[in-house]
Amino acid sequence: MATKIVMEALSPTMEEGRLIEWKKQEGEPVAVGEVLAEVETDKAVMELVARSAGTLLKQLVGAGATVPVSSAVGWIGQPGESVDGGTTASPVTGQRPTGPVPPASAPAPAQPSSRPAAEPSGRVKASPLAKKIAGERGVDLGAVSGSGPEGRIVKRDLEAVSGERSVVSGTIAPPLTSHISPLTGFTDTPLTQIRKTIAKRLAQSIGPIPTFYLTAEVDMERVAEAREALNAAAGDQGKVSFNDIVLKAVATALRQHPACNAWWQDDHIRYWDAVHIGMAVAVEDGLITPVVRDAQTKSLRQISAETRDLAGRARERKLRPEEYTGSTFSVSNLGMFDIEHFTAIINPPEAGILAVGSIAQVPAVVNGQVQVRRRMRMTMSCDHRVIDGATGAKFLKTLKMLLENPLALVW
User: Fold this and answer.
1) 324 near 289, Cβ under 8 Å?
2) Which site among 27, 104, 182, 294 is 20 to 30 Å from 227 CA-CA?
3) Do residues 337 and 261 share a domain?
4) Candidate list 179, 276, 341, 384, residue with the active-site label
């Protein structure tokens, strides 16, 4: 009996996936656990593997298609076995016996009907979205040809008449906007899965979370000197970055202020024993936060090696779900882009995130005298449901002390 291949939830937050490439073609044998396709999830590129053995009978979607979780993408069965859709695979060539197979990624274009399809009552058939658009734009659906199933009018049919104006009750409706609009010089780019997730997650944060911000300026002279000495002694064994030192200091400070190492859970607050720091990493089409787990137990060298590995694989979209989920506090550093100061958006359910700016040489008063010092500004975004002002301020005070006295990080 043929087995359906479904789009699996390849990450904890995945709701849909984009099938990037089929690794198996129709008619090819498949073993259990063998890679069928590559799928772009909301965070990474993952492999969709076979859950049963047999022959790939049919690909239901082509490369580039976005499919909801649990929806069918293909069939596995015995050669020649029929599947839903009325097609089979030949036991010898893998071709459908009814003739040549058009590529899945380039289906034949739908032929619009010469007249809109009408329901038995005489009403024009149209999708709910098409009806909504037509109502907003004043388009007479009776004058639009449908290209959907059974001649149903769909969104693309209304886009095709975007340059036209429809007369409704004696008024002239504005034209629909589309690629054939007289306004030219733009490019519409479909949302990637990671960009969809960023939009959804951050919309959940900036609106409902009562956020306040605390900013502190840190003297980084001693950190800079300590870093130079460490890197000189390390030679080719790997360099320590300022960001590595900040992460180590944050982990140490959170151990002293566990009230900031917490999740908001609607009906309770979860205070974590271990410190799992999410570090924001910019990737080609968005942002991902690899997690340094149990950061409070790791040395500066260990954190440095782990951050390099995680950041590199994050940019290649090769992180496993457990490597970018479960952080208890996050750090976003834009100092390398010469950004002096910014505020970061909390990643729920976490209660705080630290925004780190650039290190700049500025005049500062030291022991009553003006000196040029390396200074850095950092801003903590706090969920007021979990962290009170004084609580956040005490955490920042400790963090500032650790960075200004880096020897405290090795105790």
Assistant:
1) yes
2) 294
3) yes
4) 384
Range of the domain at 61: 1-108
CA dihedral (222, 228, 229, 230) in degrees, to 10, reads: 100
Out of 144-153, 277-286, 383-392, 402-411, give the one with best mean pLDDT: 383-392
CB 217 within 8 A of CB 307: no
Residues 255 and 387 in one domain: yes
Instruction: Report yes or no: 158 and 130 within 8 Å, Cβ to Cβ.
Output: yes
SS (H, E, C) 298-362: CCHHHHHHHHHHHHHHHHCCCCCHHHCCCCCEEEEECHHHCCCCCCCCCCCCECEEEEEEEEEEE
Determine contact, residues 11/42, Cβ cutoff 8 Å: yes
Residue 384: active-site member: yes
User: Of 130, 156, 183, which one is at a domain's C-terminal end?
Assistant: 183
Q: What share of the chain is helix, strand, coil (3-state, %, to 5)?
A: 25, 25, 45
Which SS3 state, helix, strand or coil, does residue 72 take? Answer: strand
User: Which residues have a Cβ under 8 Å from the Cβ of 146 and sit 6 or more positions away?
Assistant: 112, 113, 116, 117, 124, 125, 126, 152, 153, 154, 157
Instruction: Identify the CA nearest to 382 among candidates 354, 340, 342.
Output: 354
pLDDT tens profile 191-229: 787 788 777 777 777 778 899 999 999 999 999 999 999
What count of other Cβ atoms lies within 10 Å of the Cβ of residue 364? Answer: 15
